Amino acid sequence: MAVNLLDFDANGLTNWCEQQGEKAFRARQLLRWVHQRGEDDFDAMTDVAKSFREKLKALGGVSPAPTLSDKLSEDGTRKFLFDVGTGNAIETVFIPEADRGTLCISSQAGCALACVFCSTGRQGFNRNLTTAEIIGQLWQANRALRQSATPAWTGERIISNVVMMGMGEPLTNFENLIPALNLMLDDNAYGLSRRRVTVSTSGIVPAIDRLAAACPVALAVSLHAPTDALRDQLVPINRKYPLAALMAACQRYLQYAPRDFITFEYVMLDGVNDSDDAAHALVSLVQDVPCKLNLIPFNPFPNSGFKRSSRERIRRFSEILQQAGIVTTTRKTRGDDIDAACGQLAGQVKDKTKRQLRSIPIVTEHAPRRSAQTSLETHQ
Ligand code: SAH
Ligand code: SF4
């Protein structure tokens, strides 16, 4: 099978070059051409020996997943849809802000973890993305953004931050994720600082420890509930890795993390996890972990069965956290006119798990709510 150079980080490419009887420095040259310059034509790589260029052409190529669509939102957010074959498509979102440009990358076609408020989770799971498909999103977006940059691209980084917050759970695709992260950080490739690359996880505890050892980047943990009873329902992986184990993993990660805090994400679901009591319970839960709280107003999608908490509710929830000394921000919803907001990414997934669109059997008896009767069904 032809090799795809996008599948290799620096080590992988060095080994591959050596197998071809080439010197290690060829790997560095190739990385620069492919990732820094966005070049896919071997003939343009003029400082690579002609004989090696011919060999490269014969053996493989630079083959990102092809672009299916590229949509621009009114607020400048740009959503790409890439074809990853066999009827599956993944989404990648670019979010420009005054002081940074963030690319939100997918790690899987679909997601097996089935969080009930997540559009990707509702679609089921098809497969892990390869390293080439993960880094290919950055490669493609970089190229597209440079081409359309106005004024003409001057060589500055348009994408300054990467967040693994697109479709899928990055930490259940560990083997393919790590080389992609290595490329993001590599000075011969994208040269991003560790602090500007964030892995977001729903809480795969053993993989959090593995990430600390293999490639410690900024960590965001999707909490969404302050008690096991409620989190078991919203984020089913909690049944395997409950909150106490997750908080302990966060503490351990901090010894290796490039930042001195963990970001906790918390989706604001009307009448489900947004009460004053829930806010107080959240304060107790996270009090021993240096952290920032990021509240995400729920982004609706068809038949979700949930509603976004009101502005006033989010304000009050945030106030309780802040009064307890927790730095809390509320995420601005961007790109919702093109369904590019958090949790709305749907792509197109041929579900191999044959997941049914289930009704959501949520029991809130133990949830920290004033009315223990409230069930998610009431929001459908
Ligand atoms: N699988 C990883 C990363 C992808 S999701 C994770 O779960 O962390 C990125 C973030 O969007 C997560 O915090 C996720 O819980 C949140 N999210 C999912 N669906 C959402 C929705 N409909 N509205 C708002 N946020 C959502
Ligand atoms: Fe998967 Fe994350 Fe969506 Fe949960 S929130 S289903 S882990 S993508």
Task: Describe the protein.
With 380 residues, this protein is of the alpha/beta class. It folds into 2 domains: 3-61, DNA polymerase, domain 1 (Orthogonal Bundle), CATH 1.10.150.530; 67-377, Aldolase class I (TIM Barrel). 32% of the residues lie in helices and 18% in strands. It contains 11 helices and 14 strands. The strands form 3 sheets. The chain has a 10-stranded mixed beta sheet with strand order 3-4-5-6-9-10-11-12-13-14. A two-stranded parallel ribbon has the order 1-2. A hairpin with a 4-residue loop joins strand 5 and strand 6. It is globular, with a radius of gyration of 21 Å. The model is unreliable at 359-380 (pLDDT under 50). It binds S-adenosyl-L-homocysteine (SAH) and iron/sulfur cluster. S-adenosyl-L-homocysteine binds at residues 115, 117-119, 165, 169, 200-202, 222, 265, 267, 296, 298-299, 342-343.
CATH topology of the largest domain: TIM Barrel
Second CATH tier, the architecture of the largest domain:
Alpha-Beta Barrel
The string of secondary-structure elements, in order, is EHHHEEEEEEHEHEHEHEHHEHEHE
Termini gap: 49 Å
In terms of DSSP E residues, the strand content is 15-25%
Question: Which class of the largest domain in CATH terms?
Answer: Alpha Beta
CATH superfamily of the largest domain: Aldolase class I
Task: Tally the structural domains.
Answer: 2
Number of strands: 14
User: Quaternary arrangement of the chains shown?
Assistant: single chain
Spatial sequence of strands, sheet with the most strands: 3-4-5-6-9-10-11-12-13-14
Largest sheet: number of strands, sense, barrel closure: 10 strands, mixed
- Unique ligands: S-adenosyl-L-homocysteine, iron/sulfur cluster
Low-confidence parts lasting 5 or more residues at pLDDT below 50? Answer: 359-380
Provide the helix percentage.
Answer: 25-40%
Rg estimate, integer Å: 21 Å
